[in-house]
Each structure stands twice: as structure tokens, then as C-alpha cells.
Write a structure and sequence with these properties.
Keywords: DNA-binding, Transcription, Transcription regulation. By secondary structure, the chain is of the alpha/beta class. Helices cover 53% and strands 7% of the residues.
Amino acid sequence: MATAFDEPSIAQRIARAVLSPSHRRIADYVLDHPLRVAAMPIDELASIVGVSVATANRFARALGFDGYAQFRTALVLGFETALAPVEKLRGKPEKPASAADILAATLSETAHNIDRTRQGLDTEACNRAVAAILGARRVFILGLGSSVWLAGLLLRKLELFCDQVQLLASMEGSSHAARILHRVKPGDLVIAIAFPRYLSDTLLLTRRAREAGADVLALTESPGSPLASLATIALFAHGESQFFANCEASSLALIEALSSAVAHASGRSVEAAAELAEAVLPWLHGNHAGALRPSSAWDRQAPSPSTPRRGPKPRQGR
């Protein structure tokens, strides 16, 4: 039985086909911009290349397809996740709307996502996630691409309750995470964060962490996520978005909720809040700031605004 892997690729079909000069122009554009063409209707491709719609259809048939629709379906294979936002917008005709309408609709969509995230919580998975965070010898947070911002916020919360927690992100990119994860051992926990569109580096590094014996807590959008299958524990944030690949507000809400559950289970949420307040107090706006913050050399030398500057002594008359 033939499978998708038995089918020749678009590039192979083009290499084997006998093409007219017009068809060759289309083929060159397809080979140079496969992802762009995968999102194009036939009239747009024909216009860009400078041929007729009929010629574009004949090009698809020359490659062995019934027509352009089947050609485009074959081209889209492998690009489904990357093209999802494009196809979503293409499928919804634009309607006149004010900026306020879009803001209101997006806020409603976000609230719906958060509610679906709440409804989908699994009690056992939540308990295991919190226990894994508090019981781990070391906690590593892996988030690349747009997820690095979410990872940073999670770090900011968890470092109040975990003795050793580290963000696997730096200017070096994935190589920094790979170098740190090389030291991962059983007893460590890796919290991997990935939402559409998934970065292959996140999946590769998560797989390596599992192979090293570490537990993996995945924060992702559904059980069908490629990250979920690599995890020992998974929590899901529903992220439907009209204009983007994912609604990051619901992802952030899940992180906020998870951090709150960790704070509660630690038994030291009040103590941690007091320690944090004391640490940052000198840098907070208010009358107390100047009295508590260590003064710099410049502060000690600069004259006070309320103290008049000394001018030159007046000459004495003779």
C-alpha cells in the first residue's frame, strides 16, 4: 500500500516533468518560494509569475496532479503548522470593524481561551506538576523563540520557592541550552514550553533531557502537541487566536496559575513575599527609597537642592 512517503516531492516532480517556458517560470518561483506558494490561490500565483490562470492549472497537471487544488494540497504537506494562521485568516473574509471592535473581540476570545484552559485542567496532572517542581533537585526552564518570554516570567515566579532554578536562554540561543542540559541528571526537572508554531530545537532538547533521565513538565496547547508526547507531565493552555498562531495570554494565565499553586504548596508564600518586599523596597518609588538605598559617591558629593551654592566671597572695600 502506498504511503505519503512513497509519493514524489514537488521538486522531484518538477525535475522529471517536461515543461514549457511558461511552466518553467512557475516552477522556478515554486522552488524559490514553496511556503509562500502553499498559501496562494491560483489567481495570485498566476499574477505574480505573469501567466494566465489556465496556464497555472496546466502546470499542475504537467506535474501529475488533477489540477491546482491538488498541487497546492501536496505542497502544503509539512507546512501545516506554519501556515495555520495564514489559512485561518484566508478562510475568514474581512468585515468592516473599528479598532474598538477588534480589541473587544480579542479580549472576549482571550477570556474564552482562559475559561477552556480552566475547564481542561486535570487534577492529577496539576498535583504531579506542583510536586515535581518542589521536589526537584534542580529546575531548568526551556523556552525558545516567542516562548522565551513566558519562560522568563515562570523563572521570576519559581525562583521565590525553588533553591535552584535556571532559565535555558541566552544570547547564544539553543547551543547554550544544549550545553546546560548536558549536565541534567535523574532528579532534575525540565519545564519545556512550546506552542504553535513549534521550534524543532525545543523538541530536540526536551528529548535529550528525557534520555538523560530528567522528568519533563510540558506546558503546551493540547495532548496532540509534539511536546506532550515527550513529557512525563503535561499541562495545556487553549490558545485559539484569530490573528496569530497562538493566544499567549492564556499561556501566561496557566503559568500564573501554576506558580500560585506552587506558592501555596510550598507553605512559605507569606515568608517569600516578605523577603521579596524587603529586597526591592529601596528601589520602589516613594519617600522611603532615598533613606534605604545605599548612596553612591556622586550622591554624597552632589549638593542638596535645598542647600544654596556658595558663591565667591565679596571683595572688601579699602
